[in-house]
């Protein structure tokens, strides 16, 4: 559950932070906030598929200052700080509350289970892949407890 909880918390956080940047620029806040939150479920690419095209569009329209604001909020705040600094802190805090380490806390397992879910189930695989991985690990943990291994 640590994995699922942390993914949702980070998605909401990224959506809210990016919404603030979009609000400064004067674009539809709710639309881009939800788009960023949903895009954060996609491993590796994540929010870049939202802020990069938006930045390029604003720049080509001659709105360089607005493009820089979106670039700062997208690349620096959402991409660098939230993904690389705050996400591990959230995972660590949630893991310490459960007082047990899970293999699902590892980023590679998260990415692989999400990609496998997307390949197998399409867009719903963003949710189904990590859930199946969490359930499989839980089943193995229960088996280990029952058999006393």
Radius of gyration, in angstroms, nearest whole number: 18 Å
Q: Look at the helices and sheets and give the structural class.
A: mainly alpha
- How many structural domains are formed by the residues? 2
Beta-strand segment tally? 0
**What's the average pLDDT?**
84
- What is the distance, rounded to the nearest whole angstrom, between the alpha carbons of the first and last residues? 23 Å
Annotation field: number of helices: 6
Strand fraction equals: under 5%
Sheet with the most strands, sense and barrel status: none
Unreliable segments (pLDDT under 50, ≥5 consecutive)? none
> What global shape is seen?
elongated
Helix content: over 70%
How would you spell out the order of helices and strands? HHHHHH
Structure, explained:
The structure is a single chain. The chain is an all-alpha fold and 149 residues long. It has two domains: 1-100; 102-149, no CATH class. Helices cover 81% and strands 0% of the residues. It has six helices and no strands. The radius of gyration is 18 Å and the shape is elongated. The chain starts with a helix and ends with a helix.
């Amino acid at each position: 559950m640590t994995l699922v909880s942390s993914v949702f918390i980070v998605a909401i956080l990224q959506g809210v932070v990016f919404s603030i940047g979009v609000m400064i620029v004067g674009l539809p806040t709710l639309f881009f906030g939800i788009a960023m939150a949903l895009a954060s479920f996609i491993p590796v690419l994540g929010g870049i598929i939202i802020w990069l095209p938006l930045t390029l569009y604003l720049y080509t329209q001659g709105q360089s200052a607005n493009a820089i604001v979106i670039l700062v909020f997208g690349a620096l705040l959402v991409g660098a700080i939230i993904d690389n600094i705050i996400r591990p802190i959230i995972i660590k805090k949630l893991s310490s509350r459960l007082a047990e380490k899970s293999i699902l806390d590892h980023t590679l397992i998260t990415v692989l289970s999400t990609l496998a879910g997307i390949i197998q189930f399409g867009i719903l695989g963003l949710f189904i892949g990590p859930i199946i991985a969490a359930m499989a690990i839980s089943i193995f943990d229960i088996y280990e407890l029952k058999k006393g291994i």
